[in-house]
TrEMBL record:
Lineage, highest ranks first: Bacteria, Bacillati, Actinomycetota, Actinomycetes, Geodermatophilales
Name of protein: DUF885 domain-containing protein
Species annotation: Modestobacter muralis
InterPro entries given in the database record: DUF885 (IPR010281)
Any Pfam family matching the protein: DUF885
Length: 568
């Protein structure tokens, strides 16, 4: 930053940080859509990670300078929120960096293996010029994957290793990508005039995928043998802060969250038992969900389910706009997509570019299936699409000019994002959109899954005892520490999803400590904030106005979310 252009407010510091991050990490620039011609990939070596850490340190120093120069900025609510968010996010990220977590980043969802591939699905491909950028970036994939291997090797030298379960899962994902192979298939629709360049770059990228697979399978896996799945309290606390925006590791915060998650599991189970009787008299919740999977309404065909999910979001927009939300024009476009092979089992959402040229998109992993029961997809698409992730994240893009790009992009906190999406499912239930017993049982199953996540995520990583009133397969293990095997058995008895999904989820929790708890803890904060605002406003409380104000304040962590929502 030059002296002449030095920021004078926290928002300016935050936005300068976004631009600097885009310089270092072109994947972020593509996600934001602010540099469409950028064909680079990030430096995935240890040096690249240190450069990102140094940027965070310099940004924090700049924030300190700005606030010291003008203490009155702390009185401006937008500047105050931005400053708190920026400081908390960067210090949380630095804590992970200094612990060397980037040197053992192997997981089935959020690691460089996946992010390097997924960036191509966000790149424009409408013109030959667009495809030329794709070709140049594809040519850089081998170097990016070599840098990733260099980081893992550096971690191994320091004794910082991922658990074997993560390694074997990612190897399986890479095997699936190579069946296509993925990059060769991705460029198949490219223009004729670039055919040779695209094919050569894709072949090199697919070969690089094979190199990563071979390195993980033949070298890293043996080094990782004996590394425990459980990360322990100290590492878990750092991760939990990163995902939730709160120091849950202090005091009894994690034990309290674990106990609350168990109580939620029991509460939801009673509701499921009542509803299962309506779906199938005499059936348990699991029996009712299995019956719905076999005999309930379903859609046959991959394209047919994509169209059905698209129609569901379009219908939700029409029903909610002007009544429960004010949905701006650019937000009314959201696309339903089919996830590429080798993705994790859970559906997901990708946000729009800053100019909305790339819309928000929901993604359904089909896992090779051709038949799709609807009972467990309705609530899920309210979560991923409308009024869930899409309304929040696209609204953030819409109001970015009133806040800062940082507050509406890089500063996102999982507990805020996933908490809103889970709140959105509950809202649709409150509004009567889940009156069908099958769809409502799917909603309760989604709620139960998030409660179970709190229990098994904290339970496994901290090796807490199975509660004394546990039932079913884990009843004989009361008082014993949770293990992945016990968690999988408990999950299987309390979640109606299929075995492949549950297996993928368990690996996800073990590889992303603290993320799984962000859904229910975030939803709790959203509900507490709404209840407090409603109590304060009384008869004057306007739910639509509250929704729009809440969705327009940008990112907040759990330390601030409920309190800020209560003031709206």
């Amino acid at each position: 930053m030059t002296t002449a252009a030095r920021p004078t407010t926290p928002r300016q510091v935050a936005d300068a940080h976004v631009e600097a991050v885009c310089d270092l990490d072109p994947l972020v620039a593509t996600q934001l859509g602010n540099r469409p011609g950028d064909d680079r990939l990030p430096d995935t070596t240890p040096d690249g990670q240190e450069a990102e850490a140094e940027l965070m340190r310099s940004t924090l120093a700049e924030l300190d300078r700005v606030l010291a120069a003008d203490p009155a900025l702390e009185q401006d609510p937008i500047e105050r929120r931005c400053a708190r968010l920026l400081r908390e996010r960067l210090t949380a990220a630095l804590a992970l960096h200094e612990a060397g977590e980037g040197l053992r980043a192997v997981s089935n969802l959020f690691s460089p293996v996946q992010s390097i591939r997924s960036v191509f699905s966000m790149m424009p491909t409408a013109t030959p010029e667009n495809w030329a950028v794709v070709a140049r970036r594809l040519a850089r994939v081998p170097a990016a994957y070599r840098g990733y291997q260099e980081s893992l090797a550096a971690g191994a030298e320091r004794g910082l290793l991922a658990a074997p379960r993560q390694v074997h899962t990612v190897v399986g994902q890479l095997d699936a990508w190579l069946e296509g192979p993925y990059f060769a298939g991705f460029v198949a629709d490219g223009p004729v005039e670039l055919r040779a360049e695209l094919d050569a770059a894709a072949a090199a990228a697919d070969a690089a995928v094979a190199d990563v697979r071979d390195f993980l399978r033949d070298t890293y896996a043996s080094q990782a043998e004996g590394t425990p799945d459980a990360v322990g309290r100290e590492r878990y606390a750092r991760f939990a802060r990163s995902w939730n925006g709160s120091d849950l590791g202090s005091g009894t915060g994690l034990e309290d969250a674990y106990a609350w998650g168990w109580a939620e599991h029991k509460r939801i189970l009673e509701q499921q038992r009542v509803l299962a009787e309506q779906v199938r008299p005499g059936a348990t919740p699991m029996e009712a969900m299995r019956w719905l999977g076999e005999h309930g309404e379903a859609v046959d065909g991959v394209e047919a389910i994509r169209e059905r999910l698209q129609a569901m979001m379009d219908t939700a927009i029409e029903a909610l706009d002007g009544v429960h939300f004010d949905i701006a024009g650019p937000l009314r476009r959201v696309e339903s997509m089919i996830a590429p092979p080798g993705s994790a089992a859970a559906p997901y959402y990708t946000r729009p570019s800053l100019d909305f040229s790339r819309p928000g998109r929901t993604w359904l992993p089909t896992l090779g299936k051709e038949r799709f029961p609807l009972w467990d997809l309705v609530s899920t698409w309210y979560h991923e699409g409308v009024p869930g992730h899409h309304l929040q994240l696209a609204q953030w893009v819409h109001v970015a000019g009133d806040l800062s790009n940082y507050q509406t992009t890089l500063g996102g906190v999982s507990a805020n994002l996933e908490g809103w999406a889970l709140y959105a499912e509950r809202l649709m239930d409150e509004l009567g959109f889940l009156s069908d017993p099958g769809a409502r049982l799917g909603y309760l199953d989604a709620q139960q899954m998030r409660a179970v996540r709190v229990v098994v995520d904290i339970g496994m990583h901290l090796e807490l005892p199975v509660p004394d009133d546990a039932e079913g397969a884990v009843a004989e293990h009361r008082g014993q520490p949770w293990t992945p095997e016990l968690a999988r058995a408990f999950f299987g008895e309390n979640c109606g999803r299929d075995a492949d999904f549950l297996d993928s989820e368990l690996v996800r929790y073990l590889g992303m400590p603290g993320q799984a708890i962000s859904y229910k803890l975030g939803e709790r904060a959203w509900l507490e904030g709404r209840a407090a605002a409603q109590q304060a406003r009384g008869a004057d409380f306007d739910l639509k106005a509250w929704h729009m104000a809440a969705l327009s304040q940008g990112s907040l962590g759990l330390d601030d979310l409920a309190a800020e929502l209560a003031q709206l």
